[in-house]
Amino acid sequence: MATRKRKAQAAGTLPKNPAPPAGFNGDVFIQAGHEKTPDNKTGGEGPLGNEIDWTPIVADEATRILRGAGVSTIREDASLKLSARQNERFRVQVAVFLHFDDPDGGESGASVGFKNSSDEPAAAEWKKLYAKFFPFRFMPDNFTADEASYYGYRYTITTDAEFLIEFGDLNSVTQARWMKPR
Length: 182
Fold this sequence. Notes:
By secondary structure, the chain is of the alpha/beta class. It has helices at about 1-10, 50-70, 120-130, 145-150, 175-180; strands at about 30, 45, 50, 75, 90-100, 110-115, 155-170.
C-alpha cells in the first residue's frame, strides 16, 4: 500500500498541504524555474536533459518531503510572470527558486543568488549542505546578474530568507550524469 501511494505521489500528486502558521501563506515557497513559463524562456539545455523538465521534478520532490514532515509548502512555477498574477504575494518564512545552470561559455558549477545580504547566511548554509554531496565546484554568490535580481523575489515576503539555487551545469556531461539520477 505504501509503495502504491508513493508511486501515485511521484506521478504528480503531492501530499495535502498542512495548514500554514498564523499570518503566513506557508512555511516555505518553492518555485520550479521555467516550468509553465509564459515567455518561452525555457532555461538551459544539456545533452542529458533540459532545465524546464528537471526543475519540476526537484521542486515536487522537495515539496513532497516537506509536506510529509508537516511543513506547509507553496509549490509554484514561472506562471507568476503572467500579467494576471503580477499582484500576488506569498508571505512565508523561506523562499527558494530552483534552477540548473547552462552557461554561454565554459563550464560552471552550482551557485546561489540573493537580493539582500540578510539572505546570505541561509544561502551559505545551503551551500555547506549541498557541498557534502555535490562533488563539483561552486561559483561565486550572485554569479550572474539574473541571480541577484531574479524576478521571483518580488512575489515573496519572507521572514527568514529567500534565494535562488543553481544545482549545477546541465551542459557539463560529468555534472549532468551526477545530477540526473538524484
